[in-house]
Amino acid sequence: MASKQTVFRLQSRHSIVDFTTSTEEIPKAAAYEVLVKVRSVALNFRDLAIATSRYPFPVKDNVIPVSDAAGEIVEIGPNVQGFTIGDPVIINFNPRNLYGPMKDWYGGLGGPVDGVLRNYLPINADSVIKVPKESSLKASQWAALVCTGTTAWNALYGNVPLKPGQTVLFQGTGGVSITGLVLAKAAGAKTIITSSSDEKLAYVKEKYGVDHTINYKVHPEWAQEVQNITQGNGVDYIFENGGSGTIKQSIDCIACGGVISIIGFLSTAKQEDMPDVAGLALSKGCIVRGITVGSKQLLEECVRFVGSHNLDIPVEKTFSFTEEGVRAAYKYLSEGQHIGKVCIDVE
Question: What CATH number does domain 4-144+314-345 carry, 3.90.180.10, 3.10.450.50, 1.10.10.10, 2.40.10.270?
Answer without folding.
Answer: 3.90.180.10
